[in-house]
């Protein structure tokens, strides 16, 4: 291992030790040419910072972890991108971990075991049992990011899923639809909180409109994938009385459902109006473009990073908070908005 | 900081120290209930492994970094997912970093500065100047993953982009198309290697068929986004003689281009045949579904992880290798395959 030290790098690059330190940490405030000079000096000398020394000296690594269930769902890729941007504004870098929704992996990350250098964890939980998290002693600052309703002593940033789902179904009711299907219900025991909350909002909107809830219009899905959305739509189409509208709990489910509707020759929205959830970039480009509940991902990310930094810097004993980010309903062709260029 | 040690955790959980160590590293071979018991003991005792101690003892952290330009492009999200799966098979965990294609950030990661604990780096470079990388002394094992043609002393895993692009344009020629546009050319100096290679393959296929290359059919794009694809298609449609087919250098570009073609009332593939590149999941669900060059992402990931592990475990001085993964052309509706359920 090379014996080069920070001082040697600074001398070779003709800059201060502080500047080298800033470059190593990836701080944005070092000008491009200087940054490049320092990096070349680091490279030439084969310098590597000693992790624990750096960590122990400042007590902070400037690195936070973001754990998400998956990246193939564009929602999480877009959310991660917003978190990286928000963290960068505060001079933090982000390492991303993918949990596959595995409860043990989520707990391992929540305990700060995945990388001992990180200052804190943003966790978008999926499989994690809340009793497991409740026992956690918060050795590592933790903020939960996402839709589940956790009764645990950790900060939580999310949107009001019940209200957002109610708005989605209200919109379909407002179009005169009376037989409104749902794609996204899950038969797990207990059902996933996201599905539960969105179903609650859906049912509240039906009740307001005097419409009965019919469980055959809510086929269960295994996961929130395009293939699951396609399979659920085939089930709905096979009913004696298929729906005239469908509220999908994610845009991925809606993508699969709309593809099947297209294959069966249905006109959207005339024969079937469709609303999705997440407002992924793709929703604006689909044919037809997809009306979707749009969580304010930038605000979610900003609030989550802010809460985590407050927890890292502030007293560990402050009571946990729940913070709501905003959302919107983005209206598009799948519920009758006339085509417009994306 | 807590004084709990590995031994204390093992005693509390009633398992061996080796088992605790396996759980901490995230090794998959510990059974679920045992894993949970260990994690609870870790949590109750507030144990945190001492990073450098662990690292120095084994000389390995079992963690590799994957750096990609962005995650919003589904290609990189899908590739990252394949890398995580391939690494898991070898007992490695993956931390993902997003570079935004920033040359200094890519160089910082290639030098192993982003996280001193990692054993090695898989880098999908975008902005990095190859002269910067060439000076690198390989203190951290590095494998390049992706389409650029780097003349640097590092292992490189990629597909044959020239051949793949040639196949794409040959397919359009085979359909009888004679005025074949290209979306994805970039006017940077020097042009991005990916664009250069795909353009070379395209032009070779035109030449084979006795077709002249017409630069007005290759409008430049700023980036490989849906919006850029849409803008390029508008340019092509405004030509006195618009194309009867278009080869898009990514599926994202094709998504934007097809949306504009739809808005202008074109029938795909009758009026305009479209081929994309990357074979992202969405390609199978678009209306119409998109014919696309399909790099074998699983093989790319497997080969890249294998090359990196060989570099981590093997002699640092072995000469760098270039390994090619396979690809395929996935035929779908956008070039005339009849509709079928995804």
Automatic annotation (TrEMBL), chains A, B:
SUPFAM superfamilies (alphabetical)? lambda repressor-like DNA-binding domains, Periplasmic binding protein-like I
Q: Which residues form a coiled coil?
A: none
Keywords annotated in UniProt? DNA-binding, Transcription, Transcription regulation
A Gene Ontology molecular function term of the record: DNA binding
Q: What is the lineage of its organism?
A: Bacteria, Bacillati, Actinomycetota, Actinomycetes, Kitasatosporales
Pfam families in the cross-refs: LacI, Peripla_BP_3
Official protein name in the record: LacI family DNA-binding transcriptional regulator
> Would I find Ribosomal protein among this entry's keywords?
no
Show where the HTH lacI-type domain sits.
4-58
- Key word DNA-binding present: yes
